[in-house]
């Protein structure tokens, strides 16, 4: 056992290799890339009772070319964009990453729908 200075918590030193933090992310992405599972999670988290999986549009970023960005899960439901990240460790940059992901998602959506940013109408 080793006492960490300032924490007052004792932790046992591990002889095991460092954990792969990406496996949780991969499982999360795999499980909720299925529309039925995603809709079930959405309903559970939001107290809703949607049943039509066709109302979901999964729009997750997959390694955007020039920024090497990838988010865990993004989808549109009733014209609302949802971005969900599975984060198992503290990251002070998550608000900035979320802003960048959301901007990229909207950019992708605008291109796919043929919407002009400079048009006087939406």
UniProtKB/TrEMBL annotation:
Q: Which domain of life is it from?
A: Bacteria
Listed name of the protein:
Uncharacterized protein
Organism name: Blautia segnis
- Taxonomic lineage: Bacteria, Bacillati, Bacillota, Clostridia, Lachnospirales
